[in-house]
Amino acid sequence: MKHKMSLAVVLLAAAAVFAGCSGAEKLSTSSTLPSSEGDLKCEKAANDNTGIDLKVKHLANPSRLTPPASAYVVWTRADKDAPPQNIGALEVDKDLSGRLKTVTPLRRFELFITAEPSGETQTPSGTPLMWANCNR
């Protein structure tokens, strides 16, 4: 009986871990964008890369921020000491939603979004507005 009970506990714990890996991670949000929401999904992609599927909603047009910006830029970095990498500008549609799908060679990383004067900037100038971690 004891063996069956411990096996059941192990199986439930494993199911919870695998369910967490396949689900989307909620992005934390700065008080600057209180109504914004986002989800980050990280999955194994070809060549052992990580596929990123980022979805946001209720994101204000960057020109309406203080100070105004022209783009939201999505960044990754392997750890807090690593330099951030621009992985793309996040386009916001008329419904205030946006999506970015891309691939990175990183398996564990921090992802964050800043408002920038250009989508092509190579160094973040703003503070993170939304963020999450990916541990594939």
Structure summary:
With 136 residues, the protein is an alpha+beta fold. The protein contains 1 helix and 9 strands; from the N terminus they run αβββββββββ.
Q: What distinguishing features does this structure have?
A:
single chain; about 140 residues; alpha+beta; Immunoglobulin-like; five-stranded antiparallel β-sheet; four-stranded antiparallel β-sheet; 1 helix
Characterise the protein shown here.
The protein has a single domain, classed as Sandwich (Immunoglobulin-like), CATH 2.60.40.200. The chain has one helix spanning 2-22; strands at residues 25-26, 28-29, 37-44, 50-57, 71-77, 85-90, 98-104, 108-116, 130-135. A hairpin with a 7-residue loop joins strand 5 (71-77) and strand 6 (85-90). Residues 2-22 have low confidence and may be disordered. It has one helix and nine strands, in the order αβββββββββ. The strands form two sheets. Strands 2-9-8-5-6 form a five-stranded antiparallel sheet, with no helix packed on it. Strands 1-3-4-7 form a four-stranded antiparallel sheet. Helix content is 15%, strand content 40%. It is α+β, with helices and mostly antiparallel strands and 136 residues long.
Q: How would you sum up the major sheet?
A: 5 strands, antiparallel
In spatial order, strands of the major sheet run 2-9-8-5-6
Total helices: the number is 1
Helix fraction, binned, reads 10-25%
Strand tally, please? 9
List SSEs in N-to-C order. HEEEEEEEEE
Identify the CATH homologous superfamily: Superoxide dismutase, copper/zinc binding domain
CATH topology name: Immunoglobulin-like
Structural class: alpha+beta
Please name the CATH architecture: Sandwich
The stretches of 5 or more residues where confidence is low (pLDDT under 50) are 2-22
What is the arithmetic mean of pLDDT?
A: 86
Shape: globular
Whole-angstrom Rg: 18 Å
Q: Which percent band covers the strand fraction?
A: 35-45%
CATH class: Mainly Beta
Distance between the termini: 35 Å
Compute the number of structural domains.
Answer: 1
